[in-house]
Structure formats: C-alpha cells, structure tokens
Design goal:
The chain is built from 21 helices and eight strands. With 421 residues, it is α/β, with parallel strands linked by helices. Helix 11 (232-250) crosses helix 14 and helix 17 packs across helix 19 (383-390). The longest helix is centred in the first third of the chain and has 20 residues, at 77-96.
Length: 421
Amino acid sequence: MCSSSPHSLHLVLSSLFLLSNPMDFSSRAYIIKDTRRRPAMDRVRHVTVLGSGVMGHGIAQIAAMSGYGVTLRDIKREFLDRAMGKIKWSLDKMTSKKKITAAEASDILSRIRPVVDINEALAGADLVIEVVPENMDLKRTVYAELDRVSAPDTIFASNTSTLPITEIAGATSRKDMVVGVHFFNPPQLMRLVEIIPGNETSSDVVSLMREFVESLGKTPVLCRQDVPGFIVNRLFIPMVHEALYSVERQGITQEEMDSAVRFGLGFPMGIFELADFTGLDVIHKASEEMYSRDQKVLRQHPRVEQLYRAGKLGQKSGEGFYKYADEKYERVALSKELASRCDPLQVLANILNNAAWLITNHASDQKEIERAAELGLGLKKPLFETAAKFGMDRIVAELDRLASQHGQFYEPDVLLRTMSK
C-alpha cells in the first residue's frame, strides 16, 4: 500500500484563504484543550491517518490536540520521522509563545504513534483517514487492502479533493461506511472541512463525521451529493478557465482580469496569480478529473494544458501565467485602475451558475455555499450578495449571450432564471 504526501487542491484554496486572512499559526493551532468526552468520542476513540505528508501529519496533529489517540502510518520510517519532527516543531513553537504548556505539548505528542506496518496501524482503529495521492487506481488498491485488514466496524474517510467517493467506496465491501472528509491545508489553521457521502454512505456515518469534525474545532459543510469538485472546487476550478476565455473575448491583459477579480469580486488575489502560486500541474490535474466526470462543470481552455506541458507551472518553476525572479513568493502588481478596464461579469456568471447547479441538484444550499466560499475561497462578501450588486438579470442575460455565441455550456441554471425575475 502506498501512502505519501499528495500535492492537491487543498493547497490551492487554502493559499487563497490564508492570504486573505493572515493567521498566527502558533496562536490558533491548539484548538481544543478540554478532552472531556464529546459525542463523536463515544464511537471514535482512535484514529489512523494514512499518509504523513503535509495534510496527513496536520490532520494527525489536530486529532491528537482534540483528545483522540492517533496512529500515523506511512510506507517508510524516514517519512514518519520527518512528519513527527514537524509536529514537534509546531508544538514547541506554541509552547514558546505560551499558547500551551510544555506538559500539554508532551501529552499531545504522546498520543501520536508513528507506524510503518499496515496491520499494526489498523489494529484498534475506529476511523481511518486516508491521505494518499490523488490517483484513483492507487485509491482502489489502498481501500481494497484496508477492507481486508480493518475491523468490520471501522469507518473509512477519504481526504480527496476531487475524486468521487462512490467510486472509492466501490473497492470495499462496506460502501455504507466510506465517506469523504476533505480538510484544507494547513489543517491546523483552516476551519473548513467538506463532508461528502457516497451514494451508499449511511446517514449515521455522515452524522458521526459532522460530530467528529466539530470535535476538532472545525466548521463542516455537507456536500449532499457526490458531485465532481464537491462544493469549493466546483466553484473555483472553472474560474481559471473562464477567466482565460474572458481575457480573450475582452481583449484585455491578465493583470486587468486579476485586478477585477480582486477588487471587483472580493477575492483576496487574482485568479491567475492564485493559479501560479499553487501550480498549474495541480490546476490541470483537477480540471482533467472533474471534466472527465462531468463536462458541464467546466469548459477547458487549452492554455492550462499548454503551460503544464511546457513545464511552466507557476511560482515553483519560475514561470506560469507570470514570470518570477526567484523562488521567493512575489505578489503581482494589481490595482483598481487596472480593474476598471475589465468587466468580470462573465467570470461571476460562471461561478454563480455552478453555485446554482449545486442547489438545483440538491448537492448544497445557499447558506452552505456561502459558508464554504467564505472559509475556502476567502471571499470578503457573500457570493450571492455580490451577484445582487451586479444584478441577477444581467448575469442571466450574460449567460444567455454566451450560450448563443459559444454553446449550451453557458445555459443559465433554472434557479438563476427564477432569481432574476
């Protein structure tokens, strides 16, 4: 079984949120000091985390901080040693800032047991949180082995950001006990967690996972249907492609579009700026996964793949949508003056159409979408409030115009038509 650090959309969206909402890691990480029994702990006492990379060791840390016994499993001892070192560094930093005592730090660390052997790792596990790379073939292999080795009443939770939970569950004999629990990076700071049931996930498991997420001091949002992109990524990923089309159609620059997204739509940074900060390999992979399962979710622009194939992955490679002088993160020069040269209506219409689709198809509701957009995308104003400012009738008219010129992909969702009347 392979279990290593996935580089995924967790990084994309949390980067956006953290730039908008700077937080002191040391002051916010120790979430729950009171480890008295909470409802989730009646059923879940011991958690096994598969994968000790950035997401894995972060999830292990917050579970231990919340009073759970934790086994952290990876395929090599060196991976585990590195992960435990990072957890200890985090706890030491909190101790130095007097957020926790040395005794509390020692107690938290003692609740995390690093293990290589899979049988040992799964022994006594009430909940397994899988954090392996975003590859469906790998996931199927992992879950088939989990199913063979784990106790019959062990719940499986995938931290996937894009892959369908129903398909993952299909590799097991316990489809009713497999659920998506999508944390954002870094888990120690990010409040949002998406919960995604598969087609056969039991309502009891969904309720338990909501309690578990809340016991970690997090804010759960429920994606009621196993749809491509869940909630946050279904809103976000199509924006990159749509912004590219809008730049071409308006004859404007990337900087002008990014400025309009930041200053006109209330995002903390531009869409191309964000894509570069995160990596075009991540954007491309997520786009491919989502499009392969639902062509309505996004209209792929060829430039994303072109940049990916050319190795122009953004900040980490020195060039993506923008060029960078060195590995140090550089903010692009955006301004309200540049924003005035761009109409972001097409991009807003796209994200609203996907939000409306989620509601129409009973995957979410407006309240949950707004919560997810605030905590996952860092929006400064509610999405539907921004839409009302632009005018819902204008948004529907724009989608109708785009549909007439570029195809049925842009057809407005029935909910938007209703809201525009």
